[in-house]
Amino acid sequence: MIEANLIFRSLMVVILALFATVFAVIYLYDRKQHMAGWLASAYLCGLGAFLVDISRSFLDPVISDMVAKLIFWCFSIGLILSIFAHYRARYPLIAIGGIAGVGMMPLLWFSFVDPDIILRSIFSSLTAGLILSCALPLFWKKRSGVLDNIMFFLIAALCFIYFLRPYVIYGVLDATHTAANYQGSAYAMALHASSAICGLACGVVMLIVVGHNIILKYQLATTIDPLTGLMNRRGLDQFISKELSKNDMSDRAVMIVDLDEFKKVNDNFGHETGDNVLTRAASVLQRVTGNLGKVGRIGGEEFIVILDKVTSGDRLIVAQHLRLSIGMIVHPEIAPEDRITASFGIALILEDESFAMALRRADSALYEAKAGGRNCVVEAHNDNSFTQIRYIERY
To answer: With 70 as the cut, is the pLDDT of residue 145 above it?
Structure first.
């Protein structure tokens, strides 16, 4: 029995230390993985709480018991903060601080005023469960996939265990223990066994979630233009493939937007100014388009806008709005008389027409816009004719 208990404790130390190390290495490799950073802190606290808990015979029993419980609360807090970091939500510091503050009162009371190790254990477990429950509303609101649901049910199960464990040990089993016989008590065995199972389950699930986040991050990096934050050509290809597999692309419009004489900006004012111009133009395109479609960057100064199904008049209004908005951007690095304008080529995606064919027609319309004096919108028709629109020349 003693040998089995020693093996179990050794395994617990190894498991907690291993997860703390793995999450710490991930965080040190990529400091933006805040979830991994909080998980490393959580498992380090879990390791500390376990080591203090099994060392009571060498320390003051009351002090060590209280310290172990406080560090264990820190494990719960780190776990919760990792979940909020995963969802990029504001940390519930006030709620956590309030729960921990209220939990401290019975912990101190039953430690020094009216020492009672059983009540101390009950209130400690309830406090940890309440801390964990702070994540449940966020889960319910944000969960959308399999991993989210697994995390939700895992944290809900942990809360249930923390709330139920004192009732089972003291209410059902009618167990009692003192500081002297704690190590061999039913509560200690149940605490360590349930902590081992929960810690292992949490560690495995959270490691999968962190790994999934890293994969998504690098996948996103290959589909997003790092300068503007818009989708790049690869992102555009993926978006088109996905949309074509779900919906009919016909009756949507594709616009190619090209900043006029952008090379002069780089030549006269430098590439840093050119990057600023591109970033501002991309921001305007994204903001004005809004929920009407998707915006991407497909070249140096060339952008694409894929509009959802709108009428002919509406898509021309959107194009004109975009053209005027780009022309009204204030670039501090450039003199007002050297304002940046844009030319637009637009084509409706016809029935039974591929996206690539519509894109070629939009590109031809853009060529007409450039040849026709720039700073205008040209729409391509299915009979290879074009219509140029150039309203409101003064800003």
So the answer is: yes
